[in-house]
Specification:
This protein is mainly α. 57% of the residues lie in helices and 9% in strands. It has seven helices and three strands, in the order H-E-H-H-H-E-E-H-H-H. It has a three-stranded antiparallel beta sheet, with helices on one face. Helix 1 crosses helix 2, helix 2 packs across helix 4 and helix 5 packs across helix 7. It starts with 14 loop residues before the first helix and ends in a 13-residue tail after the last helix. 19% of the residues are buried.
Length: 197
């Protein structure tokens, strides 16, 4: 192809439609902190989301106006961007979002992905690392090197990350113990409510 590589994915749409799509995806991402879409759309929306968080960290009038022009719900999301998210990512030098590939969600088998904000309440890598820690602490081999590396990654920029990870691990351990008791018949769950007399 003449002209070399593309600078961005066209996503099979004309320019105005593509920009509207990306604005909509980013608005949903900041609203819910995690969205699932196709992989190419997630990668393009990731670029725009990273730029918006950088604007939020600058916290100037010009950056507020630019962010207001991108969001479809600026009244709801501008305060979140310039307070909560700004404080969360103030010490992080970049990499505010994560794209995780998942099995295709649509019938056409398009490659799908989850786009999420890191260090948030719905951070999937944090939850997976906590679950892996629970499983590896039960074995005699101890914690593997790759798990220790993931622990460092998920707690590095998160404020109070190590304590929060330990709290999550303890909660998962108690949940698993309750599941084991239920399986042994120690805790019986009532399937049907008792009839009133």
């Amino acid at each position: 192809m003449a002209g070399g590589a593309l600078k961005y994915r066209h996503l099979g749409r004309k320019s105005s439609h593509r920009q509207a799509l990306l604005r909509n995806l980013v608005t949903s991402l900041f609203e819910h902190e995690s969205i699932s879409t196709t992989w190419p759309k997630a990668k393009e929306a990731q670029r725009l989301a990273e730029k918006l968080i950088t604007l939020g960290k600058k916290n100037t009038d010009a950056s507020r106006r630019r962010a207001q022009g991108i969001f479809y719900k600026p009244v709801e999301l501008l305060p979140k961007l310039f307070t909560e998210l700004r404080a969360r990512y103030l010490n992080r030098p970049g990499g505010y979002t994560r794209v995780l590939r998942i099995e295709p969600l649509k019938e056409d088998q398009a490659p799908s992905a989850i786009l999420e904000l890191v260090d948030g309440p719905r951070d999937m890598r944090f939850a997976m690392t906590a679950k892996t820690l629970v499983r590896e602490r039960e074995t005699e081999g101890g914690i593997r090197e790759s798990t220790a590396r993931n622990v460092r990654k998920v707690t590095r920029y998160r404020e109070g990350g190590e304590e929060e990870l330990e709290k999550t691990v303890r909660a998962l351990e108690s949940t698993e113990r309750n599941e084991e008791r239920r399986g042994q018949g120690l805790l019986r769950r009532k399937v049907y409510p008792e009839k009133q007399k």
